[in-house]
Design brief:
The complex is a heterodimer of chains A (264) and B (435). Chain A is an alpha/beta fold and 264 residues long. Chain A is built from eight helices and ten strands. Chain B has a four-stranded parallel β-sheet with strand order 2-1-3-4, with helices on both faces. The longest helix of chain B has 29 residues. The chains are: A alpha/beta (264), B alpha/beta (435).
Amino acid sequence: MTAVAAIGVDAGSTAFKLVAIDAAGVILSASIEPAHPKLEAQAERLLALVRARFPEAEAAPLVATGYGRKRIPARAAVTEITCHARGSFFHLKRPHLLIDVGGQDTKAIRVGAEGEVLDFAMNDKCAAGTGRFLEVILARLAVPLAEVALHTAGAEPAVTVSNTCTVFAESEVVSLLAEGAPLEGVLRGLHESLASRVAQLAGRFVDDPRIGLSGGVALNPAMRAALTVAVGRPIEVVPDPQLVGALGAALSALLTKAGNPATR
Amino acid sequence: MILRRLRYEIVSRLVAPALLRITKRRRSQGGTGATSPLGPPLESRHKLKELMSAHYLGGRFADGAVPVAYVTSGFPVELLRPFGYHVVYPENHGALCSARRLVPQLSEVAERAGFSRDLCGYARADLGSLLSGSTPTGRLPRPDLLGCCTNICQTVLYWYRVLADRLGVPLVLIDTPFVYGQAPRAHLDYVAAQLYEAYATAARVAKRRADISDLEVPIRLAAEGTQLWGECLGLSSHRPAPWTCFDGFVHMAPIVAMRGTVACNAYYRMLRDELSDRVARGIGGIEHERHRLLWDNLPIWYQIRELATSLAAAGFNFVCATYTDAWAEPGTTFDPHHPLESLAMAYSHVLLNQDLKNRLRVMTELARRFQVDGAVLHSDRSCKPYSVGQIDLKERLQRDLGIKTLILDADHADPRAFAAAQVESRLAAFMESFR
């Protein structure tokens, strides 16, 4: 059995992710949970589970990323930009533009030939272009994420939904449905709305030949379709899209093990 | 009148410096304590504090003693010097309010009166201060004249109209059309004619006679002052740079607020000598300079110390800034022998009144001259004219010079538009990308 060589934690704004990898970067264990306000306790509990299964994990270096990175006892804290670039490059193995639609941040990262960050852009102080936008409105419509694709698979044309503000969009959607707009059209419009905002951000780097997508929304086929149209070129979903940041953190931990200086 | 003038002069020249010397002594007895990644503080800062405090303390007793004017930072203040005006800069006052973190409470006063939160933070702070009477300076004198020049933005036009309406004093407006390339003759004549009128109005309000030849001295002093300021900034082309642009933001107060005076130039001679001495002795603005950066746009006044310290800890020094450089640029065109014409030329060609090509030229020259490895472009919610075009500028700098660039969303005055975790995360990722 392969041994755990490094651990990565991505303490994001909505989800907490932890992965344990072997020396080749293969994920041996992964956990995804909603982020708990007491991050330290959450990390400790999930780490205990990994260590129970892989005793050698006790000595494995740990790197933390995400908004809560500095609250996790780790060898180093590395930003989610660097970690997402590393995690995504590990899978795609070539320069690309990574679009990560997270819970609070949407990032467009130009990843170089060695997995380094060439440039990046993030949304401003507003979460209307992030995963939270969909999450809030789908919850209001009582549509589980798993069923979104079923609802949007038909030919119902999109109903325009604004994307300036999540709160406004939520009440707009409720009004649209009350006026008789079909749920399928509203859902399609919702995805297009988010996709156009993400494409606006990624548009700064539109010259990049390949585009990868990570974050929870990558699991949503309706979002993938809307984003492909909005960006105007094919989008490749990075394997384990929700774990890309945590994987990048674990890969960073491997680098610290190899004698590279810890980064913060 | 005579007694008031006497009180104004005594407070400005004697009381304020004495108070500052007492404070300085108390501070120096206390010691600095903790280790810092920043270099040793500049000795000139004591003199700077003395100068600026004297300016504001004297201001409390200025009305009724000397003529008082409120002007925009881009107003040709040289026009007021012959008449002995005490000049107040609401933008400088806004920066002071911001550094003291008073902008939210002052803004709320302005916002309750109907001014939009989307307006410039300086305007909101100033109007909030006017409406509430609250100011960190103790008291601002009541103006006799308002001087507004549209070369920095159009917001000032409406801001000063509000001031004129509320305070019931004359407003002198200098309209400087936007410049693409070089301002044509007709443009310069148009501005010079307004300057002539403004000079006459300033004389009338001060109850003095207007004589164009009286402008020679202040224009000569302003030319010399901007040149000295430019020399201070230029010393950062050395490695390590003897100071940081965050120091520069603080030390630019006299060139903004006291331009065209002997005291301003004496200050910059002292600062230049201190910086030259630091260069000779290899003393840096930060302890270990590993990377050199350019800053674009206004500073984030309420975060200067935090930003400077966290960047310095990682070996990053901002060695130049378009904002501090903007006060060194016009000096080259000041000509005491052609006062109005040269003022029209200088004040029409300020950074924010020129096209993006010029912005790119200035940034490219700074980047090359100061040998920077990267640039941070502060996208300033409060200053739209300065922030527009930054995505294009960023891409050109990256492409043409091969340097790393970052756009940082914040606000120069209002901490309510500052998300600490997001700014910290973006800066940290930017710094990581240098490894």
